[in-house]
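user: At home tonight, take the chain set out below, taking as long as you need, and be ready to discuss the fold:
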Amino acid sequence: MKKIYSILNLKKVLKKNKKNKKIVLCHGVFDLLHIGHIEHFNEAKSYADILIVSVTSDRFVSKGPGRPSFKLQERMKSISSLNIVDYVVESDSGSAENIIKNIKPNFYIKGSDYKNLSDDISKKIIDEKKAVEQYGGKIIFTKTALNSSTELLFKNNMIFSDQLTQYFKKISNKFKLLDLKKILLKIKKLKVLVIGETIIDKYSFCETIGKASKDPMLVIKENNSKIFLGGAASIAQNASKLCDNVTFFSKLGLKNNYINYIKKKLKDINFKYIKAKGYSTIEKKRYVDELSNTKVLGIYDTDQGQTHSSDYKTFCKFIKNINNYDIIIVADYGHGLLNNEIIKKILKRKKNIFLNCQINANSRGSHSILKYKGVESLIINETELRYEMRDSITHIEKLVKVFSKKYKIKNIIVTKGQSGVLMYRNEINKLIKIPGIANNVIDKVGTGDIMLSIISLFFAVGKKDEISLIAGSMFGAKTLEKYGNENVVEAQELNKFFSTFLR
């Protein structure tokens, strides 16, 4: 008997078969089917004649990088093998609302851990309850004890590497989930200012046809494209998901007409910007071969130029009130927005300034972290640090100490790709190391921006270094799994990720 259906086909089947029959709906990720789920389904079936289980599609599983451990089809197939389950359907959404509206179940069944609705950070259970009741149904919470798929996967080393699992077990002896919740409440109240260059990251997905017949030229066929916020705009966008009060100051060009798109994406932010009439908003376009998932070409439009005198006055007027903010995040990619005079004015504020001063293909040779000498906190990748120090040999732990002394920086966070993150706190001569979390690398663009956004917020409310670095690394790893800034920070995902190993 066929059990797995699309929502449209399931509606047709139910129309024929549900006369005088009551329907019960269970919903979840079900990343590892276990006895707790089976007991949950048994109790759910006792309320109705037809048991439907909706399963969250892979792209909406928000439990951190590398999740789900089992793909959608595997999860659906395992549930459909249970005799007690009548139908299985994909839920291609962040909640069960759409499934509820289509099926209109008599009963929506959730585990006892959802009984206190306010405990759900996402508040999705409240919307689901309203949807059920709207169609005359009722939400019921089962009495059976639900074991956690995540907990079972973690204990059996099925989510992280052995090294990372052991590290998280050590962390669980030092911190509790309640510590995270207290930190997130403090972050929510922060007054944040982000300053820096807005970048549009455009990805054109293409088919590589081959070499042209008459010219030594690669020929590609464009299929579709996507655009994402990048640079400082990405930092502001992600910070606003954890903070209620974020102000962003930048410069936008009028030539390539991205302003409405940017403003729409930053609608929850106090967005201030300089209009550069004769210039373009920075656009970085990358051509990606769809078959190999490889970038074949990059074309950058970075004609913003240096900050003009009128813009400089606007900038100075804005940063005059810089001390009104709890934390300042600066993103300088070397495209001309932040000149030496503006940087000096920003650095007069000594406390809670976090910097990403990035060297890239466009700014290499003309851009340096030296201009930010004395900044409190810096995030930098290992390649950039070695470039600044002109040293490719010295061990990174020794080199970061020399770098910190040379540039008089109190806190330096060095990202080392899949090898993890290293933090050096100069004042107390302390090195903190976090193993690499990422295990699925698609695109590295914007990872440092996301990490800076998260780490700076955590660091600003209390020097829990390891928790800050883990949170930043977690979202950095999520960013690596997709192109551009597609994985925007969500507090609920942060909470679910930490609940994997904290209790």
Summary: The CA atoms of residues 54 and 240 lie 31 Å apart. The two ends are 42 Å apart (CA to CA).
